[in-house]
Amino acid sequence: MKSEVKTRPASRSIGRRLGAFVLLSPGLTYLVVLLLVPLALVLSYTVFRRGRFGGVVYEFTTENFARLVDPLYLDVLGGSLKIAALTTVLALLLGYPTAYLIAQLPRKWKTVALVAVVLPFWTNFIIRIYAWIILLSGPGLVNSVLGTELELLYKESTIVVGLLYSYLPLMVLPLYAAIERLDPQLREASANLGASGFTTFRKVTLPLTLPGVLTGSMFVFVPSFGNFVIPELLGGSKTLMAGNVIRNEFLKARDWPFASTVTLALIAVLVVLLLAQAWAARRA
Amino acid sequence: MRRSKILYVPFWATYVFLYLPIVVLVVMSFNSGKSAYTYEGFSLKWYGELAADERVQTGVVNTLIVAAGSTAIATVLGTLLAVGLVRHTRSKALDALALMPAVLPDLVLAIGLLLFYGLIQMTLGLYSVMLSHALFSMAFVAAVVRTRLVGADSSLEEASRDLGAGPVSTFVRITLPQLTPGIVAGALLAFTLSLDEFVIAFFTIGNAEPTLPIVIYSMIRFGVTPKINALAAILLLVSFTAVIAGQRLTKIGESRAQD
Amino acid sequence: MLKIDGVTRRFGNVTALDDVSLQIEQGEFFALLGPSGCGKTTLLRIVAGFETPDSGRVTLDGEDLLSKAPNRRPISLMFQSYALFPHMTVAKNVAYGLERERLPRQEIKQRVGEVLETVGLSQHASRKPAQLSGGQRQRVALARSIVKRPRLLLLDEPLSALDKKVRADMQLELKRLQHEVGITFVVVTHDQEEAMSLADRIAVFDSGRVCQVDEPVALYERPRSPFVADFVGANNLFHGVASGLEALRSEKFGMLPGTPLTELEADSAALLAVRPENVELADENAARGLAGSVLDVSFYGGVSHISVDVPDHPKPVLAAVQGAASVQAGAKVKVRWNAKDAVIMAVDR
């Protein structure tokens, strides 16, 4: 009996390790093979020469990076940054008041309002973009209501509208979560101490919901920055974003190394932003 | 607190912005005319044309195959992974790795996967799309199951072990039933995400018969007709129903688990 | 002087406040006492400006309050949860109200320093609220409220979040502070002991109405309604009818001695209340008193509580004696009291 009791923890710990192995290894293997190896490939292809019909020739070169810093491509990266940033700011301006008011609604209406924000997000992405083509095109609704013949499609601002439409729900959700968590008495305390509504917002509400602002901004910025479908469908051929360069180099020009290099640049920008966000969130 | 009236302007603007395009889209699908822009009268003819379109039919079938397959893989792997991560390691790095496919832009995943399939010279097709979708779906399933698991009581599992149950029967009899609502929610999420996914499918399908989002994409590039509106209206109906049903389902599951 | 005049507030078909009128003098320590849901917090929030009454007037030194926005009222409110700003240090929290008045930075610094000194938190000025104990947070909230030198300080259940020992200390401290700063304090509480030990005067609330406004001793000794008699302190209550004399006629116990507080019409429904410390235990053969048997004896250090089961009386009669009790459970006794120690009041039908 005694010895049995003694050996139990040991056998258990072996059992636990076996359990951990059985549970973790399938998923982790999947992640290594289909995520880490592919990412490593992207990274390594940046220093090789292109193959003639796609693929690579394993010969070291820095020409991909040399091409990347060409003003043509730097402009594209800068343009993508600008478009994604503009989209994020607009999403904040629309999303914050929306989330704020949803958080004040009676319980029953809160769920309805939240589901209504998320619902369009669950419909087909391409279809949502298509809807804007219908609205904005020459003979579309906007022009016929306004009685104008404005060229609304195929502009930088059209891309922003498309991105905003696609990712606005991703801004509202984390903002709502942050505002909802906020103790309403803090706002009352601020008013009681003599602060106006705006001062209360600036000094209390905004600083305390900043983590939500940062999360929401990341949720909107990341998919906007790396997008190629929306610029392609709504931006025409004039405006190129980084995503378009990647897609074209990859599938049309079949220059895999250079496409990988642009992808790496895209990842680098996002990593820098994520680190900045984490830093800001820790300070908040 | 008094709320300032001016906040209602962006509030309602948000909802108008979100729903106006959808409403226009649906209305135009009943257009009897040829144009997707100007409404001429009520007709269901575009729905008829849609039903006769073989490309759309194959697209729907392919999408369902991919979604079912990737959801199956993702649900099993994601659930195991979540349990393993919560109960057996405290590694922040592994947590981050498990979440990465959900966070990375789809384009990055698509490029990486395409390079990888090229390297091992795998023939592209529905299977490569299925494997690729399972990658990010797994991350979402794991995340959903995780939140459920963190809220669950680990002492139940310990009690089960203490009462003499082995690790496998503890997992099957105690852990899994507690997680069921989370697993169902995760699977639904994975399925919906796969149905709508375009970018990764677009890159990893090769020359095979495409999935529905790719079909729609090429239809749009080809030209705008009310047939696309009809398809859009049907898809909207399907996803709205699915989301609302899913919402109800997880609510019921949660209240049952709490009883 | 804070004057509340005929204030009524309804939520749906629930009347939170029903025609409430009160006058609170300058420099007074006033308590609003009542069970939860009696409307006292609603009244506090109306005075602070976070609720609007359906009717009635509220003035401070003759100046209308209701027309002012909450941030323009010379009133501070200390929240039950303290509502300290979690992202600001103690000093920043305290300075917040002064900064809103756009005072010179030097003056703000000086006043914050002084008030933190007063509440004994000078050492903790640069901490965040999360790093403080419950008692310390309460002091920060208090400092933040008084630093603005408001004409009126409202305190919502100021001690309810503290444990027993800290509570007793803070009670003393609140009183000391109120003397020191001379601000009118209005405290809302459901704890009658707290109200009695803190306040100069107490208003007892029941379902949105004021039942009695009195000094603590008067409230304790001469409750004017059955609700007050029951809610404030422990009491033994006997139902019956007024007999016209110094007694209550009870159906089951005959004449019970007591003093009517007001003139009562003979044969009208009445209630007799006698405090445990006024109940005397006598031998079972004593000439007068209600016969019963001792149920339980509990010793509380200075006093002992003895509960006596009196047949036909719904609740045991409670008696309090100094020191340890000389009787044991099961003993046959009689309980009695003097007419001057029991009060008889009318019961509204």
Written description of the protein model:
The complex is a heterotrimer of chains A (284), B (259) and C (349). With 284 residues, chain A is an all-alpha fold. Chain A has two domains: 2-45; 63-283, Orthogonal Bundle (MetI-like fold). Helix content of chain A is 79%, strand content 3%. In chain A, strand 1 and strand 2 form a beta hairpin. Chain B is built from eleven helices and no strands. The model of chain B has no long low-confidence stretch (mean pLDDT 85). Chain C has helices at 40-48, 90-100, 105-118, 134-146, 164-181, 192-198, 216-221, 226-231; strands at 2-11, 14-24, 29-33, 55-60, 63-64, 75-78, 152-156, 184-189, 201-206, 209-214, 236-242, 247-250, 254-257, 259-260, 269-274, 280-283, 290-299, 303-309, 317-322, 332-336, 342-346. The two termini of chain C are 36 Å apart. The radius of gyration of chain C is 24 Å and the shape is elongated. A six-stranded mixed sheet of chain C has the order 6-7-8-3-9-10, with helices on both faces. In chain C, helix 2 (90-100) packs across helix 3 and helix 2 (90-100) packs parallel to helix 4. Chain C is α+β, with helices and mostly antiparallel strands. Classes of the chains: A mainly alpha (284), B mainly alpha (259), C alpha+beta (349). Chains in contact: A-B, A-C. At the A-C interface, helix 8 and helix 9 of A face strand 6 and helix 2 of C.
Task: From the alpha carbons, calculate the radius of gyration of chain C and give it in angstroms.
Answer: 24 Å
- Integer average pLDDT of chain C: 89
- Percent strand of chain C equals 25-35%
**Number of spatially distinct domains of chain C:** 2
- End-to-end C-alpha gap of chain A: 57 Å
Number of helices of chain C: 8
Helix-and-strand structural type of chain C: alpha+beta
Stretches with pLDDT under 50, minimum 5 residues of chain C: none
**How many extended strands of chain A?**
2
CATH topology of the largest domain in chain C: Rossmann fold
Can you tell me the CATH topology of the largest domain in chain A? Answer: MetI-like fold
CATH architecture classification of the largest domain in chain A: Orthogonal Bundle
Strand line-up in the sheet with most strands of chain A: 1-2
Query: What is the strand arrangement across the widest sheet of chain C?
Result: 6-7-8-3-9-10
User: What is the helix/strand order of chain A?
Assistant: HEEHHHHHHHHHHH
SSE run of chain C: EEEHEEEHHHEHEHEEHHEEEEEEEEEEE
> Mean pLDDT of chain A, as a whole number?
86
Separation of termini of chain C? 36 Å
Helix residue percentage of chain A: over 70%
